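=== RUN LOG ===
request id: a7f3
mode: sequence -> structure
chains: 1
length: 115
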Amino acid sequence: PITLSLAEEALLELIDHQGRAVKLADIEKAVCEVFGLNPESLQSQRKAKTVSHPRMLAMYLARKHTRLSFPQIGEKFGGRDHTTVIHACRRIEALRASDPGFEAAIRACEAELAG
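=== RESULT ===
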Protein backbone atom coordinates (compact mmCIF):
# COMPACT_ATOMS: atom_id res chain seq x y z
CA PRO A 1 0.00 0.00 0.00
CA ILE A 2 1.10 3.56 -0.68
CA THR A 3 1.75 5.48 2.51
CA LEU A 4 2.75 9.08 3.12
CA SER A 5 6.29 8.10 4.04
CA LEU A 6 6.63 5.95 0.93
CA ALA A 7 5.42 8.80 -1.27
CA GLU A 8 7.81 11.28 0.41
CA GLU A 9 10.72 8.89 -0.09
CA ALA A 10 9.83 8.36 -3.75
CA LEU A 11 9.49 12.10 -4.41
CA LEU A 12 12.43 13.23 -2.27
CA GLU A 13 14.37 14.58 -5.25
CA LEU A 14 11.44 16.74 -6.31
CA ILE A 15 10.80 18.28 -2.92
CA ASP A 16 12.52 21.63 -2.34
CA HIS A 17 13.83 21.51 1.20
CA GLN A 18 15.16 25.07 1.11
CA GLY A 19 11.70 26.54 0.67
CA ARG A 20 13.14 29.36 -1.44
CA ALA A 21 12.89 29.39 -5.20
CA VAL A 22 15.96 30.57 -7.08
CA LYS A 23 15.21 33.46 -9.39
CA LEU A 24 17.09 34.60 -12.45
CA ALA A 25 18.11 37.77 -10.62
CA ASP A 26 19.70 35.61 -7.89
CA ILE A 27 21.70 33.73 -10.51
CA GLU A 28 22.85 36.93 -12.21
CA LYS A 29 23.90 38.41 -8.88
CA ALA A 30 25.83 35.29 -7.83
CA VAL A 31 27.67 34.98 -11.16
CA CYS A 32 28.50 38.69 -11.24
CA GLU A 33 29.83 38.61 -7.67
CA VAL A 34 32.01 35.55 -8.27
CA PHE A 35 33.43 36.83 -11.57
CA GLY A 36 33.50 40.56 -10.72
CA LEU A 37 31.18 41.61 -13.54
CA ASN A 38 28.28 43.99 -13.82
CA PRO A 39 24.88 42.50 -14.70
CA GLU A 40 24.73 44.32 -18.04
CA SER A 41 27.73 42.36 -19.28
CA LEU A 42 25.71 39.13 -19.08
CA GLN A 43 23.22 40.68 -21.52
CA SER A 44 25.90 42.06 -23.85
CA GLN A 45 27.10 40.70 -27.17
CA ARG A 46 30.74 40.58 -26.00
CA LYS A 47 32.49 37.34 -26.85
CA ALA A 48 35.59 37.60 -24.65
CA LYS A 49 36.01 34.56 -22.39
CA THR A 50 35.94 36.83 -19.35
CA VAL A 51 32.31 37.57 -20.21
CA SER A 52 31.16 34.61 -22.29
CA HIS A 53 32.10 31.92 -19.75
CA PRO A 54 30.22 33.63 -16.89
CA ARG A 55 27.26 34.20 -19.25
CA MET A 56 27.24 30.51 -20.21
CA LEU A 57 27.44 29.59 -16.52
CA ALA A 58 24.47 31.85 -15.75
CA MET A 59 22.49 30.11 -18.51
CA TYR A 60 23.51 26.70 -17.14
CA LEU A 61 22.47 27.68 -13.61
CA ALA A 62 19.20 29.13 -14.89
CA ARG A 63 18.41 25.84 -16.57
CA LYS A 64 19.40 23.89 -13.47
CA HIS A 65 17.64 26.00 -10.83
CA THR A 66 14.61 27.44 -12.59
CA ARG A 67 11.78 26.10 -14.69
CA LEU A 68 12.57 28.43 -17.57
CA SER A 69 12.79 26.86 -21.02
CA PHE A 70 15.82 27.18 -23.31
CA PRO A 71 14.13 29.94 -25.38
CA GLN A 72 13.13 31.85 -22.23
CA ILE A 73 16.68 31.69 -20.86
CA GLY A 74 18.11 32.81 -24.20
CA GLU A 75 15.74 35.76 -24.27
CA LYS A 76 16.79 36.80 -20.76
CA PHE A 77 20.48 36.77 -21.74
CA GLY A 78 20.55 39.22 -24.59
CA GLY A 79 17.93 37.73 -26.88
CA ARG A 80 19.94 34.63 -27.71
CA ASP A 81 18.61 31.61 -29.54
CA HIS A 82 17.62 28.47 -27.64
CA THR A 83 20.45 26.56 -29.36
CA THR A 84 22.92 28.98 -27.79
CA VAL A 85 21.60 28.04 -24.37
CA ILE A 86 21.86 24.33 -25.18
CA HIS A 87 25.46 24.85 -26.33
CA ALA A 88 26.22 26.84 -23.17
CA CYS A 89 24.95 24.04 -20.93
CA ARG A 90 27.07 21.48 -22.77
CA ARG A 91 30.11 23.75 -22.72
CA ILE A 92 29.81 24.30 -18.96
CA GLU A 93 29.66 20.54 -18.38
CA ALA A 94 32.87 20.17 -20.42
CA LEU A 95 34.60 23.03 -18.60
CA ARG A 96 33.50 21.60 -15.28
CA ALA A 97 35.21 18.31 -16.11
CA SER A 98 38.40 19.79 -17.56
CA ASP A 99 39.11 22.97 -15.58
CA PRO A 100 39.43 22.71 -11.77
CA GLY A 101 39.49 26.51 -11.47
CA PHE A 102 36.21 26.84 -13.28
CA GLU A 103 34.75 24.04 -11.16
CA ALA A 104 35.66 26.10 -8.09
CA ALA A 105 33.89 29.13 -9.59
CA ILE A 106 30.79 27.01 -10.22
CA ARG A 107 30.83 25.85 -6.61
CA ALA A 108 31.20 29.47 -5.44
CA CYS A 109 28.15 30.47 -7.49
CA GLU A 110 26.18 27.50 -6.13
CA ALA A 111 27.15 28.53 -2.59
CA GLU A 112 25.94 32.10 -3.26
CA LEU A 113 22.61 30.72 -4.46
CA ALA A 114 22.26 28.41 -1.45
CA GLY A 115 23.12 30.99 1.14
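=== NOTES ===
Helices lie at 4-10, 24-35, 39-43, 49-65, 70-76, 82-98, 100-114.
The CA atoms of residues 25 and 39 lie 9 Å apart.
=== END ===
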